[in-house]
């Protein structure tokens, strides 16, 4: 593991709370991105990604220094996201209406009187559309696709984060790609 | 749609570069004469490109401060050691 990260974790383990801020700064964007892509909603993404860091802090003593910290942290964030999805929608199916899109807040964050250049409007719409397609995937395929294509992680890392054999991760990526292909092919 | 079910798995293996040279060659030959599989592969490539075109998202500016505010009180144990 990265020597700098290791040093910071040692300090946190010794009780230096301020050192934890450095860890948050290092990983906040990635953790936020995982939560946002899983949930498709900025409020829930903030909630879950903050919770992930709080859990990491309170459980730091159980973190094994020989492991990669990001893998451990992403696992916490992914599990919390999946729990949240389960609570929202106990029976989630691919054919269900797209979840989370009503709350999709990209547009509402732009002040109404703010003029956006045409290409930027197109970009926002495109991003919103991609996210709604990702959110329409069943959570088990969604997490594999996000970790592979948005976080650029290796199959081995994804298998550690999701606590699944590499072969299962591969299958989930294949199925996720197939499901997305069916939805996107006419675009 | 790929021409048969086993071929879909082949297309994914091909995409992930998990084929032997021979398997790869055989599939490429098949793709030349099978329009369905060729189309399926192109759709999969397009799907990946679309997903990868999602922009990277950053955490809100006050994120770290908010997390730090919520941390439980600092451990007191150090006090007694000194």
UniProtKB/TrEMBL annotation, chain A:
A GO molecular-function annotation: sigma factor activity
Record bears the keyword Transcription regulation: yes
GO biological process: DNA-templated transcription initiation
Domain (RNA polymerase sigma-70 region) ranges: 23-89
UniProt entry tagged with the keyword Transcription regulation: yes
InterPro entries registered for this protein in UniProt: RNA_pol_sigma-70-like, RNA_pol_sigma-70_dom, RNA_pol_sigma-W_bacilli, RNA_pol_sigma70_r2, RNA_pol_sigma70_r4_t2, RNA_pol_sigma_r2, RNA_pol_sigma_r3/r4-like, WH-like_DNA-bd_sf
Record domain RNA polymerase sigma factor 70 region 4 type: where: 129-180
Coiled-coil blocks: none
Stored Pfam families: Sigma70_r2 (PF04542), Sigma70_r4_2 (PF08281)
UniProt keyword list: Sigma factor, Transcription, Transcription regulation
Family per similarity comment: Belongs to the sigma-70 factor family. ECF subfamily.
Protein name per Swiss-Prot or TrEMBL: RNA polymerase sigma factor SigW
Organism of derivation: Alteribacter keqinensis
């Amino acid at each position: 593991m990265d020597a700098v990260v290791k040093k910071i974790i040692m300090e946190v383990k010794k009780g230096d709370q301020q050192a934890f801020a450095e860890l948050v700064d290092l990983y906040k964007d990635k953790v936020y991105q995982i939560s946002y892509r899983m949930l498709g909603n900025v409020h829930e993404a903030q909630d879950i990604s903050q919770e992930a860091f709080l859990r990491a802090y309170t459980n730091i003593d159980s973190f094994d220094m020989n492991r990669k910290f990001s893998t451990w942290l992403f696992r916490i964030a992914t599990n919390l996201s999946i729990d949240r999805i389960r609570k929202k929608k106990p029976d989630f199916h691919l054919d269900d209406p797209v979840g989370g899109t009503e709350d999709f807040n990209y547009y509402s964050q732009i002040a109404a009187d703010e003029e956006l250049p045409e290409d930027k409007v197109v970009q926002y719409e495109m991003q919103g559309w991609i996210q709604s397609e990702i959110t329409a995937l069943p959570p088990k395929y969604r997490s594999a696709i996000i970790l592979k294509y948005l976080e650029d992680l290796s199959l081995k890392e994804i298998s550690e984060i999701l606590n699944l054999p590499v072969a299962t991760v591969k299958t989930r990526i294949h199925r996720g790609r197939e499901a997305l292909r069916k939805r996107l092919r006419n675009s | 749609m790929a021409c048969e079910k086993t071929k879909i798995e082949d297309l994914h293996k091909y995409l992930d570069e998990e084929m032997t040279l021979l398997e790869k060659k055989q599939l490429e030959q098949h793709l030349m004469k099978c329009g369905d599989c060729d189309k399926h592969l192109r759709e999969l490539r397009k799907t990946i490109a679309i997903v990868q075109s999602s922009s990277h998202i950053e955490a809100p500016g006050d994120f770290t401060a908010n997390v730090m505010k919520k941390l439980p009180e600092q451990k007191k144990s150090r006090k007694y050691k000194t």
